[in-house]
Amino acid sequence: MNVAFDINGQPVEVQVEPRTTLADCIRHDLRLTGTHVGCAHGTCGACTVIVDGDAVRSCLILAVQMQHAKIVTVEGISNDDALTPLQAAFRKHFALQCGFCTPGILITAHALLTEEPNASEDRIRDVLSGSICRCTGYIPIVQAVLEARAAYQVQARSAAA
Amino acid sequence: MKLPRFEYASPTTVQEAVALLAASNGTAKPLAGGQSLVPILAFRLAAPSLLVDLRRIAGLDTIAIDDAGVHLGARVRWCDIEADARLATAHPLLAAAVTHVAHYAIRKRGTVGGSLAHADPAAELPGIAIACDAELTLVGPSGRRSVPAEAFFLGPLTTALAPDELITQIRLPPWPSARRWGFQEFARRRGDFALAGVAAFYDLDSAGHAANSHIGVIGVDDRPRRLTAAEAVLNGRTVDANAITATAEMAARIVDPPDDIHGTARYRRALLATLVERALTGAPAKA
Ligand SMILES: Cc1cc2nc3c(=O)[nH]c(=O)nc-3n(C[C@H](O)[C@H](O)[C@H](O)COP(=O)(O)OP(=O)(O)OC[C@H]3O[C@@H](n4cnc5c(N)ncnc54)[C@H](O)[C@@H]3O)c2cc1C
Ligand code: FES
Ligand code: FES
Which of A52, A32, A36, A33 is nearest to A132 (CA)? Predict the structure, then answer.
């Protein structure tokens, strides 16, 4: 089947079987390999991407469901010039080791802080409970997201003004 | 893990969707949020010929509140329930229970209809449906029918839904503002399915005694169920520590919990007693 959507601001059109998951479509057809697949059944969070503003599991979505959708992957929340506040905070706090879970966690944190710039530490922990990290022990990840929160708050204030 | 091969359709009306299901002779399946169905496909526990995606059908995603209670459309997502401030008073028990369902990203896709049709014995919404005497609306080729929750859940992942029927909505009867209630569950990690959970409420009669008590439980049987014998212990009594202990003891006695890798039956029984106690102890304070 043919399906057309926007990914990281670029319109794309792909030809996929109905059984192709969005995760496989992003990695194999679109060659955006930043999105990782850990479990392929919804439990690990590594494949999380943003669809129409919502952080969702790309392994539990069919690519054919994405007609007209706006998708953002981890590639879409970085830029070539400098580290984003989220990236800088992850680096500072050693919030990654092997990095396998990191794309899903960055996307989840970005979606959360965009939607709820004033998310409390408890809320951040609650949301991050959907991502499994085998390396870091989570504490540095929580610290990094808490530190990056300030930048999202500034952005939300200037958007409101 | 590659999913098995299937065809895909995304009709725009309930009638069209039902016609597609009926034409498949029971080999097609509706697709809502995909948060239970896609894992099942990934494990190849099912191999439907066709997935009928409900995403383009209008009118299934509304939350309506009126004199008949709270009406949740089948495609209402967990995050929609969470975001609806009216539910804090219109149905606080529902609002509290749904905070325990899954994780942030799963809550953005998972739906009411999918959870009811999937009928996991530990899922929260089926437990609320049973505890609150909810009524489901099903639409099939020969029209619409209403099914009480009590008659809908038949066993683990087994319901009264025919293969060519869709759930279009669930109605929870009106919630009196003075009602006392509590929701308690225990899971190993936040967002995981509960080892056991309790949704309890009661009203007070003119003498200040518990009346109309409803105690629904999840995770301790092959389906969500009400513990009528435990409710009978509570009804007519002043809700004090003695009444609560007696109710919790009865609850633990009458359930038949599974023995599995997540916990022994004995452990779940003890856990249930504690959760019933906590649900009822917390209840009066919220009124
Ligand atoms: C990691 C993880 C953790 C989870 N934790 C929890 C939890 O703690 N508690 C909990 O309750 N759930 C949990 N879930 C399940 C989640 O809530 C699902 O979203 C829900 O059970 C199914 O909803 P869905 O919309 O995704 O349905 P789908 O997966 O699309 O469908 C599920 C089933 O329902 C059928 N169906 C869907 N809609 C209809 C309809 N309108 N009429 C008839 N049949 C229909 C489908 O054919 C399928 O058989 C979890 C899921 C994951 C992946
Ligand atoms: S790969 Fe999608 S949640 Fe693990
Ligand atoms: S950094 Fe290795 S899994 Fe998280």
Answer: A36
**E strand residue ranges, chain B:** 7-9, 28-31, 50-53, 63-66, 69-73, 135-140, 143-148, 153-155, 158-159, 166-172, 180-186, 196-204, 210-218, 225-226
Show residues of chain A in contact with B8, CB under 8 Å: 1, 18, 62, 64
User: What's the rounded mean pLDDT across residues B40-45?
Assistant: 97
CATH number (domain holding residue B102): 3.30.465.10
Name the residue in chain A with its Cα closest to that of B10.
A65
- Do B47 and B105 share a domain, yes or no? no
Burial of residue B208 (number of CB atoms within 10 Å: 0-12, 13-18, 19+): exposed
Residue B99 shares a structural domain with residue B142: yes
The answer to whether the CB atoms of A61 and B34 lie below 8 A apart is yes
Chain B interface test: which of A54, A60, A73, A145 (most B C-beta within 10 Å)? A60
Candidates B10, B57, B82, B103: best to mutate against A (most CBs of A within 10 A) is B103
Q: Is residue B155 in a domain?
A: yes
Q: Residue B190 and residue A126: Cβ atoms within 8 Å?
A: yes
For the stretch B133-178, pLDDT in tens is 999 999 999 999 999 999 999 999 999 999 999 999 999 999 999 9
What is the Cα–Cα distance from A107 to B242, expressed in whole angstroms? 50
Residues in chain B within 8 Å Cβ distance of A40: 1, 42
Report pLDDT digits (tens) over A134-157. 999 999 999 999 999 999 999 999
| Dihedral in degrees, nearest 10, Cα atoms B64, B69, B72, B78 | 100
Of A24, A42, A112, the CB nearest to B106: A42
Answer with the one of B146, B172, B198 that is the final residue of a domain: B172
Range of the domain at B217: 180-286
Q: Kindly state whether residue B133 falls inside one of the protein's structural domains.
A: yes
Beta-carbon count within 10 A of B106 CB: 24
CATH topology of domain A85-160: DNA polymerase; domain 1 (1.10.150)
Domain total of chain B: 3
User: CATH says A2-76 is which class?
Assistant: alpha beta
Task: Find the CATH number of the domain harbouring B43.
Answer: 3.30.43.10
Q: Of B156, B172, B188, which residue is a domain's last?
A: B172
pLDDT, chain B, mean: 96
Compute the half-sphere exposure of residue A51: CA atoms within 13 Å on the CB side of its CA.
Answer: 23
In a domain, B2, yes or no: no
